[in-house]
Amino acid sequence: MPPDRTDETPRPVAPIEARVFITGANHRTAGQELRDTLFVEDRALPAFYERLRAVGAGESMVLCTCDRVMVAALADDADAVAARVRGLLAESAGISDARIEGAFLTLKGVDALQHLFAIAASLESQVVGEPEVLGQVKEAHRRAAELGAIGPGLHRVLDAALAAAKRARSETTIGESAVSIVSAAAQVAREVLGRFDSAHALMIGGAEIGVTVIERLKAEGLAQITVADPLAPRGDALAARFGAHRLGMDAVAAGLGDFDIVLTGLGASRPAVLAADVSAALKARRYRPMFVLDAAVPPDVEKAVRNLDDAYLFDLHDLERIALTGQEKRGQAAAEARAIVEEEVGRFVAADSGRQAAPVVAELRRHFEEVREQLLLEQPGVTADEATRLLVNRLLHAPSRALREIAAETPAAEKAGRPAEAGLIQRLFGLGRKAGRDGEK
User: Fold this and answer.
1) Do 28 and 171 fall within a single domain?
2) Closest CA to 261 of 292, 234, 240
3) How far apart are CA 242 and CA 192, in angstroms?
4) Is 64 a catalytic residue?
5) Dihedral pair phi/psi, residue 223, rounded to 5°
6) Which of 27, 57, 103, 125 could connect to 67 by a Cys-Cys bridge, CB 3.0–4.6 Å?
7) What radius of gyration do the chain's Cα atoms show?
C-alpha cells in the first residue's frame, strides 16, 4: 500500500459562504453625522487596510460613499473578525463602541452576499436604480486590489456582484427609476430657470442621486458648479470630478445668494439650509428665482423655504410624483432585480462549493494513480484480469474498513435508517440509480 500523504494534503479552505461578512453603517442605520465621522479618507486607506489584516480580515474592501461606510471581508472566523472590524471602525473614527451600538449593520454568509450584490445593483440606494453606486463599488474594488487587500476569494465575490448588477440593469427597467427622477429634476429646473448655461449650482454633500442630477444638468449646459461638504477630502474629490469650485460649510449660509441651483444630500441631524438664509439670499439676488433640490433623508432644507416666493423647493418625493405614473411598475422592476440578485447569489454559492471539492477530487485521483503504479511495480507480469481484481480490492480496502468503524461507532437509535456515510457512497458512485434502472427492466 502507498504511504499516507496527509502531510502533503492541502489544507481545506472553507467555502466563501462560511467566511464572508459585511459590516458598517448606511443611510438606513445611521445619520449623516455618524457616517461622516466613520468615513475613511483615501489617504488613510493604506494604513486602514493594514489594520484590517491585523485583526484577521486578510481579504477586505472598504466602501465609503455619502450613504454608507462598510467593510466587506472574508475571514475563517467571520463572527469574531466582524466584531473586531466594527471596533476598528469605531476606534479609527475616535468614537466609543456604545455610539455605534444599533447604528451598525452586520451580515454574514448568504445574507452578506445578497446585501453586497444588492448594493452593486443599486437596490440599497435612497433612489433605487441610480447608477452612481456601481461606479463606487468598482472604484472601491480597484483601490483595495491596488493596496493588496483583494485575494482570489473576494475578487470572485465582487466580480459576481458586478455581473449581477449588470444583469439587473439590462434585464429589468430598474434603471428607469433613477432616470425618471433625474429627468424630473432637470425638467423642473428648466421650468424655474430656463437655461443652464449661465446658471451657478451649489452641491452640498455627495449623495448618489445628487451627483447623478448634477451630471445630467452638466450635460444640458450647466458649467458653473461649487461643492460644499463637511468632509474636505470628499469635497475635494467631488470638485475635481466636476471641475468645480470649493466652498467651506461655514460659508454656505452667507454665499447662498450666488447660486441659482442648490442641491443638498447630507441627511444630517439638523438642516443645512435655513429659511432665514434663503430669504436673505433671495433679497440679495433681487428675487431672481432659485431652484432648491433636497435629496437628503432626513431633509437638509427647512420646510419653511416652501413658503418663500421665488424659492422653488423640491424633494425626492416631489420628483417621484412628477416622474412616476406607475408606482406598481417600479415595484415590479425592483422585485425582478432582487430575483436576479438572489439567483446570482445562489449560482455563486453553488459554483464556490464546486471549487471546494476540486482539490479533494484531485487528491483522490492522485491516490488512485499511486495505488495502480504500486500494484504494477509489485507484480509486473500480472494479467489484466488479475490486475483489475487486485486494484479493486486495494482501492476498496480503506473505505470498507472506515465504513465498518463508523457503523460500530454509530448509536443504535441511528442504525434503524441508512447511515449517512453509506448514502453518500451510493450517491458518489450512482449505486441507487443503478439499482433503480435494474428494477425498471
Assistant:
1) yes
2) 292
3) 23
4) no
5) -120, -30
6) 27
7) 30
In this predicted structure, the answer to whether residue 70 has a pLDDT above a threshold of 90 is yes
Closest CA to 114 of 343, 439, 437: 343
| pLDDT band at residue 49 under the 50/70/90 scheme | very high
Question: Which CATH number does the domain housing residue 228 bear?
Answer: 3.40.50.720
With both helix axes pointing from N to C terminus, report the angle between 152-171 and 132-146 in degrees, rounded to the nearest 10: 160
Question: Per the structure block, which three cell numbers stand in for 324?
Answer: 412616476
CA pair distance 90, 133, nearest whole angstrom: 24
pLDDT at 289: 95
CA–CA distance, 337 with 129 (Å, rounded to integer): 10
pTM of the shown model: 0.70
Distance CA 202, CA 211 (A): 11
Structural domains counted in the chain: 2
251 belongs to a structural domain:
yes
* Total residues found in the chain within this entry: 441
Residue-number span of the structural domain to which 35 is assigned: 16-175+331-353
Q: Is residue 385 domain-resident?
A: no
The average pLDDT across 219-230 equals 93
Helix (H) / strand (E) containing 292: strand 290-294
- pLDDT score at 171: 92
The active-site residue out of 63, 66, 70, 158 is 66
Whether residue 53 contacts residue 140, with contact meaning beta carbons closer than 8 Å, is answered with no
H helices of 64-193, in order, are 78-93, 97-100, 109-120, 132-146, 152-171, 174-193
- Residues 157 and 291 placed together within one structural domain of the fold: no
Of 10-19, 158-167, 402-411, the poorest mean pLDDT is in 402-411
In a domain, 383, yes or no: no
Which strand (E) or helix (H) includes residue 72? strand 68-74
Looking at this protein, which amino acid is placed at residue 315?
A: D
Calpha distance 17→235 (Å, rounded): 37
| Co-location of 195 and 157 in the same domain | no
**Does residue 132 contact residue 212 with C-beta atoms inside 8 Å?**
yes
